[in-house]
Structures are given as C-alpha cells and as structure tokens.
Amino acid sequence: MKDQSLGEFEELVLLMVAALHDEAYGVAILENLEEKLEKKYNISAIHVALKRLEDKSFVQSRFGGITQDRGGRRKKFYVITALGKRMLDQQYEIRTSIYNQIPKISFS
Amino acid sequence: MKPYPPKRALSFLRWFCREDYVEEIEGDLTELFQKQYDEAPKKARRKFFWNVIRYFRPGFIKTLKTSSATPNTAAMFRHNILISYRNFLRYKSSFFINLIGLSSGLACTLLIYLWVNDELQMDQFHEKSDRLYQVLEHRRQADRIWTAESSPGPLAAALVAEMPTVETAITMGWEFSATLSIPDHNIRATGKYVDKDFFNMFSFDLLQGNKNTALEGKTGVVITEALAQRLFGTTENVMGKMVDFYHEKQYMVTGLAKNTPSSSSQQFEFLLPFESIREGRQWLQNWENTGPTTYILLKPGTDVQAFNDQIADYIKRKTEGEVTYRTQFIAPYTSRYLYGKYENAVLVGGRITYVKLFSIIAVFILIIACINFMNLSTARASRRLKEIGIKKAVGAGRRTLMYQHLGEALLLSFLSLVVAVGLVALLLPQFNIITNKQLALRFDGQFILAIAAITAATGLLAGSYPALYLSGFNPSAVLKGKFSNSLGELWARKGLVIFQFALSVIFIVSVVVVYKQIEYIQSKSLGYDRENVIYFDREGRTENNDNLESFLAEIRSIPGVITASSTQHDMTGHNSGTSGVEWPGKDPNDKTEFENVTVNYEMMETLGITMAQGRTFSRNFTDTARIIFNEAAVAFMGLEDPVGKTVKLWGHNMEIIGVAKNFNFESLRENVRPAFFRVDPASTYLVMVKLAPGEQGETIKKINSFYEKYNPGFTFDYKFLDAEYQDQYVAEQRVATLSRYFAGLAILISCLGLFGLAAFTAERRQKEIGIRKALGAGELGIVFLLSQDFTRIVLMAIVIALPTSYILSTYWLSNFAFHITLQWWYFISAGLIALSIAFLTVATQAMKAAGLNPTQSLRMD
Fold first, then answer.
1. Chain A interface, best mutation among B29, B31, B47, B48, by max A CB count within 10 A
2. Separation CA A10–CA A50 (nearest Å)
3. How many whole angstroms separate alpha carbon B72 and alpha carbon B82?
C-alpha cells in the first residue's frame, strides 16, 4: 500500500465513481462533476486523479465493449474497491465528528 | 458519419502516450470532441489540440525504451571505458600505433580544414556581398574567347545613369606603388584609384572621414592606419594633412581606414579618387579602350540573368555597332576569388580546384589512418576472444558489443584529437609560411563543432568494421578456442592494406610529377634571359622623357651594368593588347588581340631576345615607324617573307624589320600568343637593367647611390625579373611543398599499420618459427617467409596505383601548355620506394622474430 491520503479533488472523483457505480468512465465522471459543482474541469485532471486512485487501490478498472462513438476505442470503467469505500467512510466519519463538535451558536 | 478529431493531434498523442493509457484517453477525448463538435466545430478542434497537449507530461509519456531498457547504462559506460583503458595499457604498441596514426591524420585534416575554411571565407565579410558584382568581358578572338577583367572608363557612370537596377557602380584602377612624401620623409606604398562610392560598396572600415565624401573631388586621399603610422608616425590628427605623391601632386588626407583584413582579396594602403586621373586621358573616356575594372551594386531582388541579357551588347550599342566582339556580363564579387578562371566563356574553376584537391587529400589521409585502426583491431581480435565470448554467454546482445567497440574507437579518436590539436599548434607557424596565410587556432563554436564532427566521424569510421566483426563471433566456438580467420575476413584486411598503399603510391607519383613540372617551368628557356635583370618604375626626373636617354646612358656607364633600357611591358603575364594590327588579307571581323610590347632601343638586347629574321631596333635608323613581330604573330597573320613588308598599326603604316623568336611572356599554362614590338620611348614606364653576373649586390649598391643623387626624394625600389616570374607559379609551388609533406605522412601512417600487422603476425607464428628453426631453417629464410605475404599485398597495391596515378598526372599536366612528358621511371621509382619502405618495415619485425631462440618459444605449454 502506498500513500493512503486522499486529496480533495481525488475524493470528489472517488465519490463520483462510487455514485455512478459500474457506469463510471472518464467522460461520464467529468460531466457529472461539472453538473454537480457547476465548474469546468479538464478531462486530463480526471485521468490523473483516476490513475492515482488506481495506484492507491481505491478503484479498479476494466475495459468495456467497442462502440462506434469513440473512434473505435473502448471505454474504461472504474468501480470502487472495498478499500476505497472504507477510505470514504473514514473521511466521512472524521468530517462528521468534527462537524458535530461545532458549538451550537447562531450563525446569523 | 461521426466527425473525426484532428489527425495530427491524434497521431501526436499516439506517439507520446503510454500504450496502456492511450486507449482510454483517446476514447474519452474523441467522445468529448464529438459532443462539442455539434455545437462549435472550430472550438472543438482547438479544444482537442489543447487537451492532447495537457497530457504531454511525465505521468502519461512513454518511458524511454520501455521494453529493452538497460537500467545500468551508466555502469556499462563506466565498464566499457575501464575495459578500453585496460586494453590500451595492456597492448601499448598497438595503442601507440593507433594514436600516432590517428593523431597525425587528424592534425593534417585540421590544418587543411583551417586552410580551406580561410579560403572559403575570403571576401565574405562585405555586408552587401549578395549584391556586389564585377563587370567582366568575353572577347571573341580568332582562336578562342578570352575573358578580361578590364572595362571602358565611362562604364560605371553610364550603368548607374541608364540601368534602373544598378544602385551604385565604381571604376577601380590597378594597384600601383608610388613614392609618398611629407617634408623630410619619403616612403613607398601601394594603392589604387577608385571612385567615390568605394566605401558604400565594400565593407572596409573607415575610422575617420565621411564614407560618402572622402573620395569625392580630385584632391582627397584615404590612407590606412599602417600607412599613417609609417608616414606620420602616428594615427592621430592625420586628417587634413597634405601628402605629396611622386613629389608632384598634392593630396589631402580625407579619410583614415582600418588596415585591409587578410580575408580580403584586394589589399591597399591608400586610395585616391579616380576622378583625379580621368581628365586629360583620352583612353579613359571612350568605349573602345579598356583599362580599369568596374564593380556594381545591384538593387535588392535584381534578376542577374536578365541584367546580363541587358548588358550583353552594351558595348555594341555604345559604339554604335562598331565593336561587336566584346560581350559584357557580371560575376558575383565574392565568388571571384575562388571561381576566377574562364575558358572560352565558360567558368572552369580557379582556386576552388586547390580547395577541392586538398579537401580530398585530407579525407584520404584520414581514411588511411582509420584503416590502421580497423586492421589492428580485427587482426588482434583473438586477444579479446575470451572477453567477447564471456560477455555473449552472459547475455550481452550484439548491439551492446558494437557500442562497446565503437565507443572504444571514439575514445581513441578523441584522445588523438588532443594530440592533434597540440601538433597543429606546433606546426601552424610553418604551415602559415608555406601557404602564405595568417591562420590561427581559434576555439569558437564553429571550429569546435567542426573538429568534434570530424573526430566523431573518424572514430565511427575506424570503429565500424571492428565493431561489426568482433560482435559477430559465435560465443560457443570462441570460448572453445576454435577461432580461425575466414578467407573473407583475411581478404577484407588485405584489401584495406592494398587501398592504403595504393593511395601512398599515388601520392608519391604526384610528388615526383609536380616537382618535375615545377623544375621544368623554372628552368625552361623562355626565349629571353631573365637572370640578373632588375627593373624599377620611372619616377620623378626619369619620368621626364627628355631625361630618359641621358639617365639610361648614365646607368649603362656604371661598372657591372651590361645594358639598360626601358619598356612598357614587364614580361610577366598579359600586359597590354590591341586588335589594331592590320595586314593584307586580314578578316575585317577578326578582333584578335596582339600583345603590344612597347620598348626603348636596346630593350631586346637587354632581355636577350633572339631574332629569327631581320634586325632589332637601332638608333641609326629612325625606327619609330618600324615593327617587329614574334613568330607566333607571323604564323597567325600567315605572312611569307615578312621582313620588309608593311602592315598597319592603328591606321599607320609600319614596316616589318624583323621577326623575334617566340618567347613566353605569359605563364607557361598558355601557348605563346601573337605579339609585336615597337619603339616609343615616351610610352615606357619601366627601366630594366641587365647586371653582370657575380657582383650584382655591388652593382645594385652603385646604381642605388647614383639614383639617389640623380632623383632626390625617391627611393630606389627595384625587383628582380626572375623573382617576379616565379611569383606566377606560387600556387604550384605550394602544391609541390604540401604534397611532399602529405605524401610523407601517408607513407608514414601506412607503414605504421604495416608495422603493427607484421609484428602481430610474427607473434602469432612464433611457434611455427620455433619449429622451423629447430628443424634447421635459416634466419634469412624465415625473414622471407614472413615478408612474402606483405610484399605480395604491396605489389598488388602498386599495380592498382600506377595506372590511376598516370591518369591523374596526365590530367594535371594538361593545365599547362608547356609541360614535361611523363617518364616511365617516375612510376617505377614510386613503386620501388613504396615497396622497399614496406619491405623494410616488415623485415625488421621478421628479423626480430627470426632471431629468437626457438627453445624459448617452444618451451611454453
């Protein structure tokens, strides 16, 4: 196991992979992220993040079938691994617990 | 049909991207592209490009040589160098043979490179060089077309006025030397007359003065720094000072120029305005006479071919159809130095011939040195069999081994380079004397690049065959010790030695032929006697025609002087020609020029020109309307019994009083051309004095002291006629000297190689020799046994070289109208020299081997 940390953008991509479940590939991830966050991303950033996640074994990949749309190139689908899921859970827990420590003061 | 993404971006992506990623990335990019394409096709294409470029970063680029990469390249490199170093140490003799051979070959190549580079740089420094042209003329003669540099006096001004494509043009006079003086100080300097735009055309630096106006008017002079130093003793405040020329004409310094660089073909110490001599000289103002040279600066973008078409019949138009035999054309000024020779209106070369010749020699000498390396490394392959076998057995690929041996050759050649640069630094002063150049080792970018390239090429050439050969062994056979030279390899090696020696023999023959031809030129009877003749300009009082006779009489009365006279023609090279000779039966269109030799009385005696018929000029007759032709002229005109007949010269009747035997007034490259003598003391510019042999030095001193009294303020500046004659063959003499050195070097290197091979053979056949000796063979027999092979190889080289060298020398000699006939012994002696040197080299090795005690060589194993 290499570095077990998770960057902010990596976390977003990992979440999206988990959310799209079995339908997650480069363009789909990009478009969903852009839609959710209302922000423009470059496809290469997504790819870099995916490669890193794969290196850290948070995701697994497989090739799909050949389609006409992509100039004959296959899609590469990503699914989240158990380790990835645990990592996400951990992140979520840490954040929630810190969030819960916020004193109940009015933020008006 | 789906839109297809930009091809170039796609292939770039495929080229750099990792194979395992490319599928996904390309697919995603294509999909994105197709989605965007529907909205905005152009933007989509731009975006695609940009996206591809975004992937061009470490994480996605292929690693170099992913599959067969050797992670220990550096270690292998170190290992190879170490092995090479150990080999050098172990086999010192072959190392030194290779080092000496390669370094002397490289040194010779470097010297030639410096020389060639200098020749190519000649005149290239002019900023407007691409637009600078010289006007030349083809002149149709009865037997040839002669290309002349001189043009009519009014040409430059007319071209500027009438040709819209000519930016500026200048007239330039020939170089002359003159006495310059300021009060109490006289010196001689050389310079020329030029038109005012000189500095606007040529990029000579003018330090002080205005380059537009310095030569305007008739009274200014531009001098160089060196001349200012000589004349005034300083270069400061010289502007505006007055300088006397010939104690006659005053010029004011209006410009101070930098000394002319050695990379300029024109050299001068002073420049005078051409305007100051134009006036009152009829022949500078018409189109029929020619004399000065003309240079033009074309406007940018001018079509030279079209311009040539325009001026082809310029002379004809200017003379209203009178002169039809002269065709003008322009040639780039910067190429004139290397490409200056025309034959029948076709450019046939010039100095470029020697540039090419020496470049070829350099390449050949380098090849000879490379062959040594190839032969020694392949012959000694057996010494490295185990190394190669083991390396292969452990898994070294052929390529690795090739790199190793190429690397070794490169290492050696760069070591040689270091030695070679040292040698060049040592030899350069001597080389500069031979070539009359100021070459220097300057380590600028271009030079370093050039020598690195030459050395690398040498290393690769030298290493190529050994690398291929050594890396091709079969490891199992090699390790078992079953190694035998196949017939093919043996022949390759022999072939290389044959090639080496053939080149050496060709070099030797060329040395002999060039030497003999030069000797022939220098000793050939020219039809006149140039020994012990000195000549000098008529200046000051002697320039006055009334004084000439009495001056000559005084000179003649000096003891040690045989005779003295004056002439217009210095008897070396073409001087002054005219087509104004008319004889009965002449074709009116014939514009062949006769050489015009205007002389004073007693000139023909001074030069010892012998008469075939008739008499020479004599004061006893008024001979000004008489003429003497040479035999070539009589033959050309087809006159029979010429003496007593009358011809016309420039419209005047001239009676032929004699026929002079042919004499060579031009270089021996040319045949003797028609010439005539006429008497006109007023038109003679040179005084020639024939001295008695044996005491020339004394006599010259006497003439000098007389001259200084007679002609105060002028220095007695004389030249020897034979020295001047030699100057015509400077190029040949240089070739002669250099080819001697090169031939010596070629033989030396070849013999080094042979020496190495012989030593090696003797070593390998030690046991055989031991057994032979034990069985009673004599030493002499063994020497012959060992030298046999090599002698045969060298003989074969000679057989190949002799016909080749015969062809080459015949070709070179055909440049001369007068040349030696090739003798069989030139070739035989060259062959014998090569053979005996080779034999001696091998025999010394063989003797050493034969002298060994057989018990020693047989005792081992």
1. B31
2. 8
3. 15
Asked whether residue A105 is assigned to any structural domain, the reply reads no
Token pair 């075939």 is at which residue?
Answer: B612
Q: In Å, how far is A96's CA from the nearest CA of chain B? A: 34
Neighbours of B825 (CB within 10 A): 10
Among A26, A42, A48, the residue with its CB nearest the CB of B24 is A26
Alpha-carbon span B697 to B708, nearest angstrom: 17
Quick check: A5 contacting B, CB < 8 Å?
no
Contact list, A40 vs chain B (CB under 8 Å): none
Query: Among residues A71, A72, A73, A47, which one has the least CA distance to residue A61?
Result: A47
The mean pLDDT of B126-131, rounded to a whole number, is 88
Enter the ipTM: 0.86
- For residue A2, pLDDT beyond 50: no
Q: What is the pTM of this model?
A: 0.69
Tokens of B361: 């020699």
Residues β-bridged to residue B341: B349
Q: Give the chain A residue whose CA is nearest to the CA of B32.
A: A27
Our measurement of the distance from residue B621's CA atom to the centroid of its chain's CA atoms, rounded to an integer in Å, reads 51
Residue A73 belongs to some domain of the structure: yes
Name residue B352's amino acid: I
Q: How far apart are CA A16 and CA A20, in angstroms?
A: 6
In order, the DSSP letters of B502-533 are HHHHHHHHHHHHHHHHHHHHHHS--SS--TTE
Could you tell me the residue range of the domain that residue A46 belongs to?
Answer: 8-99
Number of domains in chain A: 1
- The DSSP letter of residue B623 is G
Q: Does B24 contact chain A (CB < 8 Å)?
A: yes
- Mean predicted confidence (pLDDT) in B644-650: 78
Q: Does B29 touch chain A (CB under 8 A)?
A: yes
| Longest distance between any two alpha carbons in chain A, whole Å | 58
Residue of B nearest to A69 (CA): B31
The phi and psi torsions of B214 (rounded to 5 degrees) equal: -55, -35
Q: Express each pLDDT in B581-622 by its tens digit.
A: 777 777 777 777 788 888 888 777 777 777 777 777 777 766
Q: How far apart are the first and last CA of chain A?
A: 45
Round to whole Å and give the CA distance between B243 and B246. Answer: 10
User: Domain spans of chain B?
Assistant: 1-69, 129-349, 353-521+730-859, 540-713
Inside any domain, residue A107: no
Nearest to A44 among B30, B34, B51 (CB): B51
Considering the domain boundaries, does residue A82 fall inside one?
yes
Residue A3 C-beta-side C-alpha neighbours within 13 Å: 8
- Say how far apart CA A20 and CA B66 lie, in whole Å: 35
CATH number at residue A36: 1.10.10.10
Q: Which residue has the tokens 């300083």?
A: B234
